[in-house]
Amino acid sequence: MPNRRTTHMNPQVIIYKSRVLLTCGLGLLLLTGSLSTQAQRRRGTPPDSALAKTGSTTTVRMEEETVFTDGMRFMMTDEPTKAVAEFAKVLQKHPDNAAAQYAIANALSKTGKTTEAIPYAAKAYALDGKNKFYALLLAELYVKQKRYGEAEQLYEAMLKQGPENAEYGVELAAIYLFDDKPDKALDTYSRVERELGVNEEISRQKQRIYLKQNKIDKAVEEAEKLVQSEPGDPDFLLEGAELLVANNRDDQAIGWIDRALKLNPDLPQAHVLLADIYRKKGDTTRVTEELNKVIANPNLEAGLKARILSNYADLTGNSAVAKQDALKMGEELAKANPNDHKSQVMVADLLLQQGRKADARNAYARAARLDGSIYEVWGALLRLDGELNQADSLLKHSEEALEVFPTQGLFWYSNGSANLIKRRYQQAVDALEESQKLLAATNNRELQSGIQAQLGDAYNGLGEHAKSDEAYEAVLKVDPLNDYVLNNYSYFLSLRKEKLDRALQLSRKLVERHPTESTYLDTYAWVLYVSKDYAKAKQYLEKALADPSGVSGTIIEHYGDVLFQLGEQARALEQWKQAKAKGGAGPEIDRKITTGKL
């Protein structure tokens, strides 16, 4: 929304101004009080001692003003505790000095000592009930303690003093809302409007109250008041239309939109709203017509058009037809503006909404080539590369992203993952360690575990087994049921024929959690095989083979190895041949088939 010409009343600003005025006037208030006391004393002083007394009282008055000034200086340097001590010196001699009572209350409030501040603020107000600043501070303290009724009385008294205090009705209305008195808040807002005229923020607040009370007509009346306050401004009309659409008054909203378009026929938001209304009515022809008006508008730059189409797609909810229409228009927009990265991002977002991940990834890649400075685009691109198992693209795109964002830990993580998949173990370690360093301050346990788990794999690939085991154990310490680590750690231990008891413990936990998962069954069976428990290994491999969809060449080869160890050489040879045909068997498979032996 553009800036309004109407004046906004901000309660916090009002309070701040009040405090400034009082700060400037405290010295004068104290001086007035002192002079009054001095005058009273002079009237009761014998003539022959008048001069001496006058000098004495003048000195006392100057000393008191100095003390008070010191207190104010401490307040200005944000040392309220020291200020309290100075103001207290004044009260010791003049306990009925309202300004000093207020000053102490204000200083205590700034230190968070609301309960201690209230008696001083109350005394200041009791001494000078017409001083609005004293009333404001006391009301503020009452609100902090949720003593809303007492705060309301103070504000109501101020409003009764005259129309010059009408602006404080805004704060009173807010307190009524805190106190769950919406009707009184509405009455108070109306009182302020009668004195000061229609105000945008007050009207909006009244709308919120009416909507909460389900008084839609009253909320619409407030919208109309804003329109009348700025009859040449179409924005208020569009806001009113949005309110009507949100409350299922589409036909009425169309009238408001038409009024806005008469003022400005090029309003893109007006056409988007109409498109959404006609979408709900099932009028796809009008939907396309309205959106085409946005796309065809020569006064809108391509990026704004893209954002408008994205907003429309968000409005449509689960409407597949509307999303498809938006995508079609978005693709036409991107085609007409091939160098506009925002259009490419918009198309990518729309494709992703429809589950077309590969196409979305390509669109994000085009956007990144056009403008590589957008972190979110790289993040979406790398995430999709990973989900699509595109290791080469993940490696390439993560390297490009790191050229622009070299301190982003998530991008280093993606790069480390890609290098690990490509078996570039040293590069993987370097990237993952950098990621770990940059993300050390995050509280994302899952992310930290993911980095450690992949470091375990990368260290193992380098033959740095001690570091690998340490990384895996670090994950299991905080996440003892991490399936990824349970599987890889136990399998690598079995390949090294080390810590087999630990490997059995981990892999057993894995199959207990996933009794039908073929990969995990194979891992446990292989640990049993290395531990020379061939009969039990055969049992778990046969469980893995029971689900053909999860069977790999590796599992079939392992089954042949177990059969061979159990003396079933002919069946073993048959399994090895099936493993070779399946694909994915180990490098020794040809020798096993040729020799018929392990």
Descriptive report:
By secondary structure, the protein is an all-alpha fold. The chain has a domain at 1-145: Tetratricopeptide repeat domain (Serine Threonine Protein Phosphatase 5, Tetratricopeptide repeat, Alpha Horseshoe), CATH 1.25.40.10. It has 32 helices and no strands. It has helices at residues 11-43, 50-76, 80-93, 98-110, 114-127, 132-144, 148-160, 169-178, 182-196, 200-212, 216-229, 234-246, 250-263, 268-281, 284-295, 302-315, 320-336, 341-353, 357-370, 375-387, 391-404, 409-421, 425-438, 445-462, 465-478, 483-496, 500-513, 518-530, 534-545, 553-565, 569-582, 589-595. The longest helix has 33 residues, at 11-43. The protein is extended, with a radius of gyration of 39 Å. The chain starts with 10 loop residues before the first helix and ends with a helix. Residues 1-56 have low confidence and may be disordered.
